[in-house]
Design goal:
heterodimer; A: alpha/beta; Glutaconate Coenzyme A-transferase; 2 domains; nine-stranded mixed sheet; three-stranded antiparallel sheet; 8 helices; 14 strands; globular; B: alpha/beta; ten-stranded mixed sheet; two-stranded antiparallel ribbon; transferase (chain A); CoA-transferase activity (chain A); CoA transferase subunit A (chain A); CoA_trans_fam_I (chain A)
Chain lengths: 277, 255
């Protein structure tokens, strides 16, 4: 039974080099603090999975933590590009990043299949798009009842999923509410799951639409107030829209990015700025 | 100057206002970031107060008091009739055909409304990495009708898209196999394009005030088809402009 452990211990025990790691949270409850701890511990060669890479993966990609990325929308919401992601894909800095991409519907369903321990999921989508050319993750299947041809997506089963939530109780059960995204599916699809929470309470409050994850599907719970900053935790914080704006300038430039990493104690794979390829 | 901007409004305002006018009161509208967000909220504050806003983050019937800066803003969840998970959103709501109108943007669009938001160049080694698909492919397929909002330029309006992220009417305009009607309107900073009823080729049917057919042709990377009787779009009204500026300034709806 997971009682709260320090975040550094949770990451050290459950996130290993070469793992497939999903850090989920759809705009809301993005586990930034856990991501930074992964970087701080110098993890390498991860396959990162996330519907919306957002700033959190832009940072990890720039730091050289990831070799591969599975995603469905890679922008800075309301601001523009994810410049570290673009630099890795376009210029291979700090190294080449292999991408596997879905639509939101495709990746959401890939998690659903993963959570159900099914090999694939079915949806009516992708037809006629070039995304279908990624045959290792997207294919077609014929309905045995109607003969309709449908899209099939390979299940996603991360080695470890990390999420941020509002609450844990004394037994280590976890509760989150507001925009709950794909976190339930991402946790249940994974071999191991780590949750950072705002606080621990004796008893969960009533909350319409809350997701509750029993302690026995979780590997570790860590108390990290503000662990979603610069995203937010409904009821605890608001989204730091200014930082999302500022990130555009920080991330656009390799030197500015490396300075940001240094200032935040995050080791970068490439400490010096190399000439553009 | 390519086209006429007045002191009161510019071509971007006109594009947003024109998009807002296409929403009908009661429409269920799936809203993304950027211009669609502005247009849909403008419609709700002007002629379509009962337009239902659905955000792919899971908020159904969101009634944002201020213009949300991202699709996951707390205000959306706090004011929504229901908040659902992302898989539920795409399976039970978008995929099941419960969306009347979907808005899409485009980095590239061809004459049959096929859209690229993925890469410029080769997918495996792109010249420019774009954000990717997001909710667009399934919105393009399943929404009752699709409104594309995009600035018109030869770089964007291309003979052939580098990558098909979302299908309009297919490579030759006849391949569409999806439940929704597809891109029934493409609203630009020059005017409005609609698919030809026979061929599905995007055809210039309306011009914004001060824009000429010649300017629209120059902003298009293929020989642009122009309707026989081209209509003029009404300039933004005082009411529309006031509401638009208040949204942009993120003023609360009842402030």
């Amino acid at each position: 039974m997971p009682s709260p452990v320090p975040l550094s211990e949770a990451i050290a025990a459950h996130v290993h080099d070469g793992d497939t790691v999903a850090l989920e949270g759809f705009t809301h409850l993005i586990p930034f603090a856990a991501a930074h701890e992964i970087a701080r511990q110098g993890r390498r060669h991860l396959t990162l999975v996330r519907m919306t890479p957002d700033l959190v993966y832009d940072q990890l990609i720039g730091l050289g933590v990831a070799d591969e990325l599975v995603f469905s929308y890679g922008g800075n919401p309301g601001v523009g590009s994810l410049h570290r992601l673009r630099d890795a894909v376009e210029k291979h800095w700090p190294h080449r990043l292999v991408v596997h991409e879905h639509s939101h519907a495709g990746l959401a369903n890939a998690y659903v299949a993963g959570a159900a321990r099914l090999p694939f999921a079915v949806l009516r989508g992708y037809r006629g798009t070039d995304l279908e050319e990624q045959r290792d993750i997207i294919s077609r299947v014929t309905c045995p009842f109607t003969g309709e041809e449908l899209a099939a997506v390979k299940a996603v089963n991360p080695d470890v999923t990390v999420i941020h939530a509002q609450l844990a109780d004394r037994d280590g059960n976890v509760m989150l509410w507001g925009i709950t995204g794909v976190q339930r599916e991402a946790v249940l699809a994974a071999e191991r799951a780590i949750v950072t929470v705002e606080e621990v309470v004796d008893e969960f409050p009533e909350h319409t639409g809350a997701v509750i994850l029993p302690n026995w599907v979780l590997s570790a719970v860590s108390v990290v107030p503000g662990g979603a900053w610069p995203s937010y935790a409904a009821g605890y914080s608001v989204r730091d829209n200014d930082f999302y704006q500022q990130w555009d300038a920080i991330s656009r430039d390799r030197t500015a990015f490396l300075q940001w990493a240094k200032d935040n104690g995050l080791p970068a794979a490439q400490e010096e700025v190399t000439a553009h390829a | 100057m390519r086209k006429q901007d007045t002191a009161e409004w510019n071509s971007a305002d006109m594009m947003n206002v024109a998009a807002a006018r296409e929403l009908r009161d009661g429409d269920v509208c799936l809203v993304g970031v950027g211009p669609p967000n502005l247009a849909a909220n403008l419609a709700r504050r002007t002629h379509a107060p009962n337009c239902r806003l659905v955000y792919e983050s899971g908020a159904i019937d969101a009634k944002p008091r201020r213009l949300p800066l991202s699709i996951g803003d707390d205000d959306l969840a706090a004011t929504a009739t229901a908040v659902v998970s992302v898989p539920e959103m795409f399976n039970y709501w978008v995929g099941a055909g419960r969306i009347d109108v979907g808005f899409l943007g485009a980095a590239q669009i061809d004459r049959f409304g096929n859209i690229n938001t993925t890469v410029i160049g080769e997918h495996s080694d792109p010249k420019t990495r774009l954000p990717g698909a997001g909710g667009a492919p399934e919105i393009a397929a399943a929404a009752g009708r699709v409104i594309v909002i995009v600035k018109q330029s030869p770089r964007t309006f291309v003979e052939q898209v580098d990558f098909v992220t979302s299908v309009g009417y297919g490579p030759s305009g006849r391949e569409r196999q999806a439940p929704g009607a597809g891109p029934t309107l493409v609203i630009t900073d020059h005017g409005v394009l609609e698919p030809d009823p026979q061929t599905n080729e995007l055809t210039l049917t309306r011009l914004h005030p001060g824009v000429t057919v010649e300017q629209a042709r120059e902003a298009t990377g293929w020989p642009l088809k122009v309707a026989d009787s081209i209509k003029s779009v009404e300039p933004p009204s005082e009411v529309e402009l006031t509401a638009l500026h208040r949204l942009r300034n993120r003023e609360a709806v009842d402030a």
